[in-house]
Amino acid sequence: MRRRALLVKHTVTLSAQDALNAEAPLDQSTPSTQPVSPPSAVRAPIRTYCTFEKPIAELESKVNELKALTKAGGAVSITDEIKRLEQKAKAALVETYSKLTPWQKAEVARHPERPHSLDVIKVLIEDFTQLAGDRYFAEDAAIVGGIGRFRGRSVMVIGHEKGSDTESRIKHNFGMAMPDGYRKAVRLMEMADKFNLPVITLVDTAGAYPGIAAEERGQAEAIARSTDCCLALGVPIVSVILGEGGSGGAIAIATANRIIMLEHAIYSVISPEGAASIIWRDATKREEAATAMKITAQDLEHLNVIDEIVKEPVGGAHRDHASAIRALGDAVAAALAEFDGKTPAEVRKQRHDRFLEIGRSL
Questions:
Q1: Does domain 107-361 have CATH number 3.90.226.10?
Q2: How far is residue 238 from each of residues 87, 190, 194, 197, 251, measured CA to CA in Å?
Q3: Stretch(es) of the chain classified as CATH 3.90.226.10
Q4: 65-114: per-residue pLDDT in tens?
Q5: Which one, 7, 101, 117, 121, has least CB within 10 Å?
Q6: Closest CA to 350 of 195, 199, 234
Q7: Closest CA to 108 of 328, 258, 295
């Protein structure tokens, strides 16, 4: 009897706890870094929000909850309420993204759901054949590269790849390349020059990998040689900053004839946190550092460091990959067309003059 009573008591306790869990409201106090999803069995796609998107997260979470109730067969029609909240969320999104600060743009540039190099290659490059290895030491998955066809034109594509989930991020080392990656980039660029293939580079890295192994294998020398190789090529290079363009790790494959940035991408010699740590000895002053460093596409276009800004969908490229990549493809095609019919010497001279002019005018 005693065992039976304990069993009944344990069952009742579990049932009560399950009921409490089922009735517990969503905690929306910190939607900035946590995915928001409705409590129904019919779930909307999980979305990650930036820290400044809290009001948008709350509205979209409520819309998803109401849509889930509708799909579950609710007796009361709430279609009008859903439309009202969707309009309110869209208006909030437009207003928020129309006045982003440099630090907020840095958050968007680092968003984990932004299109990465492999996403762009999958959409824009036909018959892509990936080429691996630096022929000296190893294959570095942080930089991907290969030959393919872009709108009927054979090209060499090289880009940083951050990865889209935990497994792929570890595989690609979060887009932070070792010396082997930059030596592979040099090998592929020299191949492109030999076979007269234009080069498209896709930049998305916080910087070159700063570990001991990278330094032992000559990280600085590898970056310098990659930059020098870019300058020496007789074929046009078009570089695209997809998200982060950090330090020498970015410039190593971005010393190009034309540099294009997505609207909310950033491009800088050091991260805002790193600059704040050096200047103020306080990484929390990252917002002030981001503003002072002129890291946004708009600032860099004004300074003539980049050539063109590709407008992103409202809410950032991570909300609409297809639209962002399509606009990016149009910009790259137009940039490559500028060099049709030019000799290698002319292409090389334009690239040299472009970077010399930056130093002369700033």
A1: yes
A2: 39, 15, 17, 12, 12
A3: 107-361
A4: 888 877 766 556 678 788 888 888 888 889 999 999 999 999 999 999 99
A5: 7
A6: 234
A7: 295
The more confidently predicted of residues 17 and 91 is 91
Report d(CA 33, CA 25) in Å as an integer.
Answer: 18
Instruction: List CB contacts of 170: < 8 A, sequence separation 6 or more.
Output: 163
> Interhelix angle for 102-109 vs 272-279, to 10°?
130
CB 241 within 8 A of CB 261: yes
Nearest by Cα to 266 from 214, 315, 215, 206: 206
> How distant, in Å, are the alpha carbons of 16, 20, 39 from that of 23?
11, 5, 9
Hunting for tokens 């809290």 — which residue is that? 54
Rounded Cα–Cα distance for residues 258 and 336 (Å): 9
